[in-house]
Amino acid sequence: MSTTVKTPEKIAGKRRFDPAVVRGEFPILSTRVHGKPLAFLDSAASSQKPEVVIETIANYYRSEHSNIHRGVYYLSEIATAKYEAARETTRRFLNAGSTREIIFTAGTTDAINLVANAYGREFFREGDEVLISGMEHHANIVSWQLVCQDLGAKLKVIPINERGELDLESLPGLISERTRMVGIVYVSNSLGTVNPVKEVIRIAHQHGVPVLVDAAQATSHLSVDVQDLDADFLAMSGHKVYGPTGVGVLYGKEHHLEKMRPFKGGGDMIRSVTFEKTTFNDLPFKFEAGTPNIAGVIGLAAALEYVMAFDINEVAAWEDELLQYGENLLAGVPGLRRIGTAAHRAGSLAFVLADVHPHDIGTLLDHEGVAIRTGHHCTQPVMSYFKVPATSRASVAMYNNKADLEALQRGLLKIVEVFR
């Protein structure tokens, strides 16, 4: 069902950010759950999609679908043009220097695996070291573990403190002459911590070490500028930033990508193939084997254009206001303990409730129309550090409002009464 979208007011080339108008542009938010309005507080897992993204994908399949790059007919030319225009949109979104540095992937996990295998297996040797933080998502742990185990390299960890902040002072001492890569999450998915990635990159570069940034949680909350950060690699997912699932991006500095061997073989990533030898295509195509998620890439471009239409500082200010409001409400819930209280956070509020398992909390909140995430959030080392098996996590996006957080508090107070 199509939703009528109000014509936005334009200010200095940007839309005026009005949370109420924005909320109306996400059709799913009108859903009722168990007879109650949906309070969707799980955007850190996957954000909802505005009507423009839904319609862009539907229109592609309705009237533009074809395979790309190899067809010489009308539909293929249209699909190819839109796919490559999406690469330029992504370049602008990340402020990359060239579209040659933009590789479309299946998501952040796929992008990290690409670097771990195409860079790590090419340049790591036995005894080398990879340095990651204590708050990484499993994607930025296991990918490196597998390569390190195969090559005899070692994984080292930057510690965190009880507020869920990176121990930045320990970083220089952890970098050695054998360090070959630093992998760092920009915004923690389980704690909401915003890490000082620019400073991490600066320190690593002083030692000649490249850095991969996991920006999955950052792109919907912050301005992500790869040239300002000086990131060597940066991974992101479409579905975290109001785009479709199954699509993501790897940004890589061109001089790194040129030296890397392809991770996957197949069509479109080749220049010529014989049984004796294969020569690879130019960047970025040598890392995009096979028929890609064409609709997903075009839908991602629509999502990024949607986000870029706003002043990200206005969006961030609204989300910060929501987080502060949520913190104050949670402080009034008996037995509730926050997990992750870093000074600089974005997006998420994680907590435990005395004597109530997070899975029970999530199930009971669902009956109140409130959707949150419960579990270890693919960050089991974080759970181990805080000595909890799991947490409950409420996460906000630009389309949330204070009523969503009030519904969360009401639900939690009911749960406290049930388990008293």
How would you describe this structure to a colleague?
- The chain is of the alpha/beta class and 420 residues long.
- It folds into two domains: 10-50 and 311-419, Aspartate Aminotransferase, domain 1 (Alpha-Beta Complex); 55-308, Aspartate Aminotransferase, domain 2 (3-Layer(aba) Sandwich).
- The chain has 14 helices and 19 strands.
- Strands 6-12-11-10-9-7-8 form a seven-stranded mixed sheet, sandwiched between helices. It has a four-stranded antiparallel sheet with strand order 15-16-19-18, covered by helices on one side.
- Strand 10, helix 8 (226-229) and strand 11 form a beta-alpha-beta unit.
- The longest helix has 21 residues, at 74-94.
- Mean pLDDT is 94; it is low at 1-11.
Question: In summary, what is this structure?
Answer:
The protein has 14 helices and 19 strands. The chain is of the alpha/beta class and 420 residues long.
